[in-house]
Amino acid sequence: FSDENIQPLTDGIKTFLDIAWSGQEPRRVYIKMLGNTARARQHLLMVTGQCGVSYRDLHIYNPINQGKSGEYLPICPHNSKEAMSLLKDLTATDNVNNHVKKAGLVAGARYCKNSNNMIVIIYLTDDPEKETKTGFAQVISGLEIFQDIAKCNDKSNIKIVDCGVVLS
C-alpha cells in the first residue's frame, strides 16, 4: 500500500518483533493491532519495511517512570529527523477511542507538540487512572521480554533483529 490513498484494514492484524541482546538467541514478542488507525498503518509499514524504514536495528531506550505506575519503554530511531512519521495523516490524537494505560499497550509517543513521529512506547505497568489517545496495539505474548529489557543496565547491545506480520 505504497499509495497513501489506500487505507488497509489493520484491526486484528498480528505482528512480531524478534529481540536479541548480549549474544542470546532472539526472543519473540507478538503484537495485535487495535482498530484501523494511522498509527496502526504506520506500525504495519514499520514491521514490513515497505517504505525502507523498519523496526530492525532501532534502539530501545531506558524506561520512563521506572518502578512507577505507567512505566514504559520507548523504541525509536537514533535522531529526531529519522523519527518523522511515514504517513501524512498521523497526528497526536489519531485514535477515536481512548485506551487505559495498561501493561502491554503499544502507543505512539507524544514527545513533541504535533507528535507526528514514529516513536513507539510499550507500557510495562498499569496506570489505570490515566488514558492515552495514541494507543494502537496490544502485546499479546512476550511482554516479559520488554520487562527484562527494562531491568538491563546496558541496553546498547539490545537489537530488534527481525519483525514482520504473522500469517494465519
UniProtKB/TrEMBL annotation:
SUPFAM superfamilies: Cyclophilin-like. It comes from Meganyctiphanes norvegica. Residues 95-165 form the PPIase cyclophilin-type domain. It holds the Pfam family Pro_isomerase. It comes from the Eukaryota. This is PPIase cyclophilin-type domain-containing protein. The lineage of its organism: Eukaryota, Metazoa, Ecdysozoa, Arthropoda, Crustacea. One of its GO terms (molecular function) is peptidyl-prolyl cis-trans isomerase activity.
